[in-house]
Design brief:
By secondary structure, the chain is mostly helical. It has one domain. Helix content is about 80%, strand content about 0%. The chain contains 14 helices and no strands. The protein starts with a helix and ends with a helix.
Length: about 325
Amino acid sequence: MWKLLRLNWIAFASSLFLLAAILYVLGRKGGLDALFSVWDRTNTVAFFVAILLMFAVQSTNAWRVKIIATADGLPSIGYLSLFRIQLISQFIAYGSPISALSDVAKAAMIKLRFNLPVGQSIRIVIYERICGALGAVVVGLIATFCQLVVPTPTTLIDVQFLVWLAGLIGGGVVLACGGLHISSRIGLFDRAARAITSLGNMLRRPLVASELLLVSFAQLVGFSLVFIVLALGMHLPTSSLHIVLFMPFIFIISSLPIFYQGWGGREAIVMVTIGGLGTVSIAQSIALSVAFGVVVFLSSIPGAVFWIMRPSMRKSVRLEVEQT
């Protein structure tokens, strides 16, 4: 547990360093004034619409957990409860620089709410992360092929194909493990192997795989709409089509564990993708990315309300986390 927390402090530091570097470069080029100018003219109504859209995006995470739990033999898990847990875990993620703590707390809340074994609740949360990434890989591959017929820098297309290839190899390994029975008589290794083979078997089921892919598509479309609404509200001449096509790449990079809640990495990749098309300046693309991060943070506030309203749950989760 403490090793995991130390690693996530490193992620927090890396995000802080990258953000500082980006702002330093902007400052040297006189781009900070342009950055603040974009924020000053942001339409308030568009900003609140973006927050509402983010609630819908958060609901897709709960939907994915519901699908995985059902496939894992738990059809009675309630969606609304999972949605509340998702909001609370999102608040915990932003309330602490230790982003992995939200996953630990999420697993603890699922365990307590549905009376599950701790191993199963942790497995469900890990599966949700992996399936989200694999879904983004598949959708991203399709989106990158679409970029071949619209004006897109060739180098950027090549980089995306390399990322999706790595993701497909990882997904292929998981699927291949689904048909294996691995036993080494080493407890930790065998538990990890069983978790991978179980996920592989789950993804081999066409209905489950298609439902998970649909959730990933809905999530990425939701993120795209948030970016588009913010761009309109900030009066930026961005290409809505390119935002949609780049979103899987933006999502997968900002989801890397070396960044705290995507900060720093998201700004860098938005700067390279949306900012690299020439329709908006580097400062404007960074302003858009930071506004997106603020929207994600504000959408986690209802989770704080649910967290405050359940003191008994807070105490139980704290005890579960300490024992993890």
